[in-house]
Design a protein that fits this description.
Blueprint (H helix, E strand, L loop, with lengths): L1 E11 L2 E8 L5 H8 L7 H8 L4 E8 L3 H10 L24 H18 L1
Antiparallel strand pairs: 1-2, 1-3
The structure holds zinc ion.
Length: about 120
């Protein structure tokens, strides 16, 4: 499994990145699906390409879980560490370093949704 970050050379609306997860050992196959415009690609990536952006595989986190993908998305700070953006005000996130506080908050949210749905 791999979590990967795609960087768009030109923002699409406010989006400059796409964070994805694949069960594969590398992001190569998924990136190909995204950029080939195949139906398996993500609509946001397709829209960015249609809008004239070049899509670059900026980062791969081999062995990273779906939980890490969620954590990265919730941080909303890719622009602070993506090397394609060239800002790098924050260190690269570490899949082994998801905060316990984050895990506890997610577990609490899941319990709350369950209660509301019942
Ligand atoms: Zn970037």
């Amino acid at each position: 499994m791999t979590v990967y970050v795609l960087h768009f050379s030109k923002p699409y609306k406010h989006a400059r990145h796409y964070i994805g997860y694949t069960p594969d050992a590398s992001a190569a196959r998924r990136v190909q699906e995204h950029i080939s415009g195949s139906v398996k690609g993500n609509p946001l990536v397709k829209a960015a390409i249609d809008n004239g952006a070049t899509v670059t595989l900026a980062h791969e986190f081999p062995g990273a879980s779906r939980e890490f993908e969620r954590w990265l998305k919730d941080r909303r700070d890719v622009g602070s560490w993506c090397h394609c953006c060239g800002i790098k005000s924050k260190p690269l996130p570490d899949p082994k370093n998801i905060r316990d506080r984050y895990r506890e908050r997610k577990a609490a949210e899941a319990r709350r949704y369950k209660t509301e749905a019942a």
